[in-house]
Amino acid sequence: MTAKNMEELVALAKRRGFIFQSSDIYGGLQGVYDYGPLGVELKNNLKAAWWRAMVYDRDDVEGLDAAILTNPTTLRYSGHEATFTDPLVDCRACKSRWRADHLNGDQCPNCGSNDLTEPRPFNLMFKTAVGPVDDGGSFAYLRPETAQAIFTNFKNILDSTSPKLPFGIAQIGKAFRNEITPRNFIFRVREFEQMELEFFVKPGEDEHWHEQWVAERLSWWAAQGVNETNLELYHVPAEELAHYSKSTVDLMYRFPHGLEELEGIANRTDYDLGSHTKNQKDYDIQANVQPNTDANAKLAIQDLESKAWQIPYVIEPSAGVDRGVLAVMNEAYTIERLDDGKERTVMRFKPHLAPIKVAILPLKRNHEGIVTKAKELKKTLQKLGLGRILYEDTGNIGKGYRRHDEVGTPLCVTVDFQTIEEDDTVTIRNRDTMAQERVHTSDLSAYVSQYMSQ
Length: 454
Ligand code: GAP
Description:
With 454 residues, this protein is α+β, with helices and mostly antiparallel strands. The chain folds into 3 domains: 6-70 and 126-328, BirA Bifunctional Protein, domain 2 (2-Layer Sandwich), CATH 3.30.930.10; 85-123, no CATH class; 354-452, Rossmann fold. The chain has helices at 6-15, 37-56, 72-77, 80-83, 147-152, 154-161, 206-223, 271-286, 321-332, 368-382, 397-407, 417-423, 441-452; strands at 19-21, 33-35, 61-64, 69-70, 85-90, 97-99, 120-123, 127-129, 139-142, 167-176, 191-201, 231-235, 247-255, 258-269, 301-302, 309-310, 313-320, 333-337, 343-347, 356-362, 388-391, 411-415, 425-430, 436-440. The strands form 7 sheets. Strands 3-10-11-17-14-13-12 form a 7-stranded mixed sheet. Strands 21-20-22-23-24 form a 5-stranded mixed sheet, with helices on both faces.
């Protein structure tokens, strides 16, 4: 029995310390969430899995961690100032505001009135004052996507790493959008994180690479425990494409509230690098700077054979971290009926995503020998570098197993009298099968490493 109900997920997320409404004690802030002790581990593990696949497992991708505050000129020339909008309507009766394309017909979802304004474009970018004088003259945007800083750093990275096409630049970080109606828990929020790769290719090879990346990304989500039957491809029709895109394939996931976008994979052509190249020259002229006419100064790359400078095309797999967390939590959430008629809730996270890898439970919390041994084992396992190993001395092993099922801890290790008085073995209890086996402590590290690598 698998629960696919948002309320249950939200309740578990709060109860067990995965995700909280931000500024909770002051009534919250709409569309903003905080990740608690287990949420931060899960989120970090998902980001680490993406970084491993995108950067460490390949030799054609470099990483970047750029600033959130963005010079408005970047976002003017990227097209975001003019076009990064959603259609906004007001209800004249109850004064609520809605996204026109999210309405069911022409009725206000709040009061049912049909007295709505015509849709008008609402820019989603947050602005903030820079420096001590807030006169509107000196401001920055909070980036609406991480991608632009990859484009504006293109030449810095080219000059410092000398890559050859095709190659990519990967970045994980916060993005901000003033969504008109944030909703569905962490699905549509105003502050979120993206995992974005800009993969630069020769023009003409873009369509091949686009297909390639769609396939790669599908198999990566499967490796995170997302069932392929819950994923669908959506070929975005021309009238819905973002201003920079020649074609986009969205990976749609069956979230608890419906089938919606988890990740977008766009063919951005040479739109961004081309636009920043052209406009940077115009900017230099306006700013009275001698324009740099050297081809080398452009956001272009030189073909080693023909020596021609070329602006590459770019394929962009762009995934939302928060939507990813929601998807893997939804996939993991399982309610099982046991032989004795009772139910247990289990988060069946893949081991590499589990917030706690191993819980070490001493049978008696006041027994010096058992406690010392359990703490020693925690230290030994922690050194493996697999993630969080938790020593937990609540003294009730059965309850401990139940709680760790609910937070998705793959293995619990119990230290008891047999361990210290007889044979130096511990009980390993498996989250998924509930099977228990005795393992010698000298074999514990190898056992855990092997289990976590699946
Ligand atoms: N650089 C391309 C880009 O930003 P996007 O489709 O607007 O494309 C990419 O965003 C991903 O970021 C989405 O697939 C989604 O997972 C995530 N995302 C976008 N807006 C979001 C929001 N308001 N809340 C949570 N995640 C969001």
